[in-house]
Amino acid sequence: MSRSQEAFALGWRLALRTSGHARLRAAALAGAAALGTVLTLAVLMIGRAVRLAPPGPIANDGAGPWWLAGAVLAILLPVVVLVATVARLSAALREQRNSRLRLLGLTPGQTRLVNLGESGVLALAGWLAGLPLTWLGRPLLAVSGIGGRRYQLTDLGPGWLEVLISLFVVPVLVAVIATSTSTRGRRALTTARGAGGTRPGWWRVVPLLAGVGMLVMARRSPRPTDLQPGMRNELVLGGIAVLALGIILVLPVVVRYLAAWLVHRGGPVSTVAGRRLQAQPGAQTRVLSALLVALFLATGAQGVVVTLQDVPQYAIPRHHATVEASTTLHVPAGSTAEKIAARARTVPGVRDTVVTHVMTASCDSSSPLCDFLQVNVASCEAVQQLAPGTTGCRDNRAAWIDQPFDMPGQPDALTISLHREDADGFPTGSPLAQVPLARADVVQLPVDASDRLNGPILVPAGLPGVQEGLAAGGYAEVHVTSDPRRDLVEAMRAADLQVSSFWDMGEMDRIQRTIDTVRLVGALVLVLGLTSCAVGALDRALERRREVVRLQLLGVPARTLTLSHWLEVAVPILLGAGLALGLGWLAGDSYLLLVGEDERLRIAPDFMWPMIAAAGFGSLLVAWATSLAANPRIRPELIRAA
């Protein structure tokens, strides 16, 4: 057997035939490789099926491929971080061991082969185990409904390209990590003695700044015409990926300055925690990296969901389908509103009908609003009947609906003049009635009923001259409410009634598919992040046992070690979580640029307060759980191991 083969075999024996801690690390690596393979292939197979399937809701939507690309990116990033984190478990102990092997005469190449034998074979075994698991799960994936459709097994594959990508994402990545470290000269002697690690450089800040810059550039060019075709979408997705990398890379820099501050602050607890962080500033990164990336992506995902749930295209049709359906009927010539309302009430499921009127109007301003203006005429009782929960309605004054309509040249107070309309719908003749309108007067309809009054202004029917004006001009509308249903419009048309307003249920379904996909992605990345953090934290705690026992033997109180451990673990989690939450909001808000070209949705940051509270509680929980493993009572076997 050649020296290279002996080095490779040594790595294999170190993985399986040493301590229970090493065997636990080996099992974690194989399990992470299998899980990473399954998730990587699953998301690539869905992308392949969408690409090969006949045109559907996603294919017909210009933003659909970019939404799907975002989902693929959001899942692959935590998978890569999870695999990389597990591949670097017990990094400090393994670096010391490799340095001792170097001092015994192994060359850098042979040391890399030892690492490859220890990690690469396990990753390859996990990858091979993940392939049949993915194949067995294809029927479940086909009927899962992810992306709003079912898939053919033949379209899912996986093809050779998907298998090749999974090979690079899992075992090849582990092999690169295993062979990327080498220890030379004096550093080998220093590392073999267990001395401190290297200081993280300022270059780690560059990816974070680059990711923010890419998103800012995309946000400052909201229209595709401002950038080359597709460049905005590439900037958004590329910026999110670079930001995720930047969070991982910048954390050691943050930990470095945190450690310096703790040491400078003085006191036994702060000094012990600071010296630990100074010795290995990258150790906490390996534990927290997947969790912070998951929190970063989950924050953006939750922000997208919260925002999409509030858009009228989703909120109103969903209210129709789940709470109360509504539509508006046209009153044709030769009929009356009362007759149309009576016919509508014969349709099964109809709860109520309300009659309002629309009149053509003008106003005393040069604002474009006054060029073509139509106002709603109804009593406040009718408005409450039509939209229960409406606030701000007064029968003695006109009011804006939902919010003042701001236009250039528009004063705070207007005089609205009601007119007859000509053949083209424009006001004609002398005013039939005039009513004042102040900027402060606003009628607020519930969000899910905001479509039931068309137009920006409500004129109460009881104001002086309005009833006389209605007798000479304007037209009536019949508003129908019914039990929740998706087919109210079709039912009205089947009764030979003319529908004048309705919402596209297909648009609601498209947004619902997007929400479901984003929620699924958020849940998956959080599971990956928590799994990686739990494995890494347990490994880190077991790795530090000998150090803690030595300090206890030197007389350091157990309470001091416990509190320093809490400080060492909880504070980096809080700092990293704050960074991940803030950048996650930026990523989610920028991701909404992919919704469409005609609107710009924004995420209100107040949704993050529960997540901030959860991050604080979670940091304390992790610190408590790992302190149990990292600070054991002194026992004879622990003294011998120290």
Structural commentary:
With 642 residues, the chain is an alpha+beta fold. It is 61% helix and 10% strand. It is built from 23 helices and ten strands. It has helices at residues 3-16, 20-52, 64-87, 91-103, 108-136, 138-142, 153-156, 160-179, 185-192, 205-220, 231-265, 268-279, 283-310, 312-322, 337-345, 380-386, 466-472, 488-494, 505-543, 545-553, 558-591, 609-630, 636-641, and strands spanning 325-330, 350-363, 373-377, 399-401, 413-421, 427-438, 442-443, 457-459, 475-482, 499-501. Strands 1, 2, 3, 4, 5, 6, 7, 8, 9 and 10 form a ten-stranded mixed sheet that branches. β5 and β6 (427-438) form a beta hairpin. α2 runs antiparallel to α3 (64-87) and α2 crosses α5. The model is unreliable at 56-63 and 183-196 (pLDDT under 50).
Name the descriptors.
642 residues, alpha+beta, 10-stranded mixed β-sheet, 23 helices, 10 strands
Query: Which spans have pLDDT < 50 for at least 5 consecutive residues?
Result: 56-63, 183-196
* Helical content class: 55-70%
Quaternary = single chain
**Biggest pleated-sheet summary:** 10 strands, mixed
pLDDT averaged over residues:
77
- Structural class, from secondary structure content? alpha+beta
Radius of gyration, rounded?
33 Å
Gross morphology: elongated
The share of residues in extended strands comes to 5-15%
Figure out the total of helices.
23
Number of distinct beta strands = 10
Distance between the termini: 35 Å
